[in-house]
C-alpha cells in the first residue's frame, strides 16, 4: 500500500469518525431546538461550508486558456462515487435534478431528526440509518438492476440485526423514534438511487450545494410554519449546530473527496461504513448511552450486513495477494 493510499484511507476513516459523532450532536441539538429549526441552521451552514470547496474545485479545473477541463474531477460527493463530466446538462436541468435530490434529502433528514428527538439514541440512529446501504441494492430490483446472492444475504443479516436492535421484544416494542429513523433510511436509499440515476452528469460539489440549499430552504419554511424558530435555543446548542453543519459537511466532505482520490472504491466504502460504529462510540463516551447485549448483537449484524453489501461478488485482489505491500 502506497503512502498516498494510507493517507487517503486515514482521511476516509476520519470522515467516518466525524459523521459517527455527528449523531451525538444531533441528539444534543434536540435539547433546545426543534428538528426543523436544527436542520434549517445545519444545512444552511453545510451549504455555506461548500462554497470554498466549489471555488477551489473551479480553480483547479480551469486550464490556462480559461476553458473548463472535464477530466480529473473530484472522486465523490456525499453520496456519489463517480465523477461526472462537467457541463453535461443545462443550468435548468442541473437545478431540477439538484432540487429533486434536495426534496428527498429534506424528507430523509426530517424523518431522521424527528426520530432522534423521540428516540434520543445516537447509537440506534447511526446503525438504523446505515440500513440504507443494504436497501439501495434491494430497491435497485425495481429498476431491473442485478442483485448478487451476497447482496441478498447481506439484506437478511442486516434486517436480522434491525430486529434484535429494535424489535427484540416483539413488533409492539418498537418506539416511534426508531421507526422514523428507519423511514428516513428508506428515503436516504431513494435519495442515493436518484443521484445515481439523474445526477451522474452534474459536478458532484455543485449537486451537493444545491441539494443542501434546497434542504435548508424547505427546513426554514417548515420551522417558520410550526413557529419553532428559537435563536436563544440555537445559542444554547451552538456547539452541536456548528459541528453538524461545518464539521459533518464541510470538513468530512473534504476529507472524503480527498481520500477517495487515492483509495480503491471497495476499501473506501468499507472505511466509510465505520460511521455507524463511531455513532455508538460517541453515544457511549459523550451521552453515556448503554444497550442490552441483544442490542449490541443487533448492531454487529447490521454492521456485518452493510459490509457484505459493499463487497464485490468476486473477492478483491488485495485480499488474495500474499504480498500486501504490492501496489494495486
From TrEMBL:
<feature type="transmembrane region" description="Helical">
    <location>
        <begin position="6"/>
        <end position="24"/>
    </location>
</feature>
<keyword id="KW-1003">Cell membrane</keyword>
<feature type="transmembrane region" description="Helical">
    <location>
        <begin position="92"/>
        <end position="111"/>
    </location>
</feature>
<feature type="transmembrane region" description="Helical">
    <location>
        <begin position="205"/>
        <end position="225"/>
    </location>
</feature>
<dbReference type="InterPro" id="IPR037185">
    <property type="entry name" value="EmrE-like"/>
</dbReference>
<dbReference type="GO" id="GO:0005886">
    <property type="term" value="C:plasma membrane"/>
</dbReference>
<feature type="transmembrane region" description="Helical">
    <location>
        <begin position="179"/>
        <end position="199"/>
    </location>
</feature>
<comment type="similarity">
    <text>Belongs to the EamA transporter family.</text>
</comment>
<dbReference type="InterPro" id="IPR051258">
    <property type="entry name" value="Diverse_Substrate_Transporter"/>
</dbReference>
<keyword id="KW-0472">Membrane</keyword>
<feature type="domain" description="EamA">
    <location>
        <begin position="7"/>
        <end position="165"/>
    </location>
</feature>
<keyword id="KW-0812">Transmembrane</keyword>
<feature type="transmembrane region" description="Helical">
    <location>
        <begin position="149"/>
        <end position="167"/>
    </location>
</feature>
<feature type="transmembrane region" description="Helical">
    <location>
        <begin position="123"/>
        <end position="143"/>
    </location>
</feature>
<feature type="transmembrane region" description="Helical">
    <location>
        <begin position="295"/>
        <end position="313"/>
    </location>
</feature>
<feature type="transmembrane region" description="Helical">
    <location>
        <begin position="268"/>
        <end position="288"/>
    </location>
</feature>
<feature type="region of interest" description="Disordered">
    <location>
        <begin position="62"/>
        <end position="82"/>
    </location>
</feature>
<feature type="transmembrane region" description="Helical">
    <location>
        <begin position="237"/>
        <end position="256"/>
    </location>
</feature>
<protein>
    <submittedName>
        <fullName>EamA-like transporter family protein</fullName>
    </submittedName>
</protein>
<dbReference type="InterPro" id="IPR000620">
    <property type="entry name" value="EamA_dom"/>
</dbReference>
<dbReference type="Pfam" id="PF00892">
    <property type="entry name" value="EamA"/>
</dbReference>
<keyword id="KW-1133">Transmembrane helix</keyword>
<feature type="domain" description="EamA">
    <location>
        <begin position="176"/>
        <end position="308"/>
    </location>
</feature>
Amino acid at each position: 500500500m502506497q503512502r498516498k493510499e494510507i493517507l487517503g484511507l486515514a482521511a476516509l476513516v476520519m470522515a467516518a469518525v466525524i459523521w459517527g459523532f455527528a449523531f451525538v450532536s444531533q441528539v444534543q441539538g434536540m435539547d433546545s431546538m426543534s428538528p426543523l429549526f436544527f436542520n434549517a441552521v445545519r444545512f444552511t451552514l453545510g451549504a455555506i461550508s461548500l462554497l470554498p470547496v466549489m471555488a477551489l474545485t473551479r480553480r483547479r479545473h480551469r486550464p490556462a486558456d480559461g476553458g473548463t477541463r472535464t477530466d480529473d474531477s473530484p472522486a465523490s460527493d456525499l453520496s456519489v462515487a463517480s465523477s461526472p463530466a462537467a457541463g453535461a446538462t443545462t443550468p435548468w436541468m442541473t437545478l431540477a435534478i439538484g432540487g429533486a435530490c434536495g426534496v428527498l434529502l429534506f424528507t430523509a433528514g426530517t424523518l431522521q431528526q424527528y426520530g432522534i428527538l423521540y428516540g434520543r439514541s445516537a447509537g440506534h440512529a447511526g446503525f438504523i440509518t446505515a440500513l440504507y446501504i443494504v436497501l439501495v441494492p434491494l430497491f435497485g430490483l425495481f429498476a431491473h438492476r442485478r442483485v448478487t446472492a451476497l447482496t441478498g444475504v447481506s439484506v437478511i443479516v442486516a434486517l436480522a440485526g434491525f430486529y434484535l436492535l429494535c424489535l427484540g421484544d416483539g413488533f409492539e416494542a418498537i418506539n416511534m423514534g426508531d421507526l422514523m429513523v428507519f423511514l428516513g433510511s428508506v428515503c436516504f436509499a431513494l435519495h442515493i438511487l436518484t443521484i445515481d440515476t439523474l445526477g451522474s452528469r452534474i459536478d458532484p460539489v455543485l449537486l451537493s450545494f444545491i441539494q443542501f440549499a434546497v434542504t435548508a430552504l424547505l427546513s426554514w419554511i417548515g420551522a417558520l410554519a410550526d413557529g419553532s424558530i428559537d435563536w436563544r435555543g440555537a445559542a444554547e446548542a451552538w456547539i452541536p449546530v456548528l459541528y453538524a453543519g461545518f464539521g459533518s459537511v464541510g470538513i468530512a466532505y473534504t476529507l472524503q473527496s480527498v481520500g477517495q482520490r487515492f483509495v480503491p472504491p471497495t476499501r473506501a466504502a468499507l472505511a466509510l461504513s465505520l460511521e455507524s460504529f463511531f455513532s455508538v462510540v460517541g453515544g457511549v463516551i459523550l451521552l453515556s448511552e448503554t444497550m442490552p447485549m441483544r442490542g449490541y448483537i443487533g448492531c454487529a449484524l447490521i454492521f456485518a450486513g452493510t459490509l457484505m453489501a459493499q463487497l464485490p461478488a468476486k473477492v478483491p485482489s488485495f485480499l488474495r495477494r500474499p504480498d500486501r505491500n504490492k501496489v494495486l
